[in-house]
Design a protein that fits this description.
It comes from Streptomyces odorifer. The chain is of the alpha+beta class and 194 residues long. It has two helices and nine strands, in the order ααβββββββββ. The chain has one domain. It is globular, with a radius of gyration of 16 Å.
């Protein structure tokens, strides 16, 4: 059973990586005239266009963000929360460093001993299904690596980078969940079916 889960996690992670690469490639081919800029960015050329170019396809209804969270030196946009038939919930979006200096995501780390080696990442993120009174932690592989974005080297001042995190999917009846990332305020997000 563990080998099946490991293969499934690897195939899902590989699929997410391919989608991200394709989205970045398509963003480089776009005109850049489309899409709503949620905030001005200081000297942000590459990071922002990649994030904005990838936004319309996975976003919530009408191409709008599911949630925007601001706290500390970062602004987080949640663009999608997709439940797939394999029993996974993939939440994704972008994070912008609004502070001065490099942001390392140190307060987003997991408190779990097994996930500590993931460093500045979304390993500490959780999903709470308030209706079912159940909390879901980020998935991990058999070596303790989270199925989430790791911010290796941090995020430079004014830059925007894409992120994702995978969780076990809440039951079909659960359409809204709360996303909690580090010390940021929780955000209620709508789940879509993949």
């Amino acid at each position: 059973m563990n080998k099946w889960r490991e293969r499934k996690a690897r195939s899902v992670l590989g699929g997410v990586a391919v989608i991200n690469v394709l989205a970045l490639a398509l963003a480089g081919c776009g005109t850049g005239g489309e899409g709503e800029d949620r905030s001005p960015s200081k000297g942000d050329s590459k990071g922002s266009s990649a994030s904005e170019g990838a936004a319309p396809e996975p976003s919530g209804a009408g191409g709008q963000a599911l949630a925007q969270i601001k706290g500390g030196d970062v602004a987080v946009t949640v663009k999608s929360a997709v439940r797939d038939s394999g029993g996974f919930l993939t939440v994704s979006g972008d994070v912008q460093n609004t502070g001065s200096g490099i942001w390392l995501a140190s307060d987003w780390q997991s408190d779990e001993r097994e996930l500590k080696k993931n460093g500045g990442s979304l390993a500490g993120a959780t999903i709470v299904d308030t209706a079912a009174k159940k909390k879901y932690l980020v998935l991990r592989d058999t070596t303790g690596r989270c199925l989430c974005t790791k911010f290796e080297g941090g995020v430079d001042e004014g830059k925007t980078v894409d992120w994702y995190a995978q969780f076990p999917a809440p039951p079909q009846g659960s359409e809204k969940v709360e996303l909690q990332i580090g010390t940021m305020p929780p955000a209620t997000i709508q789940i879509s079916e993949g």
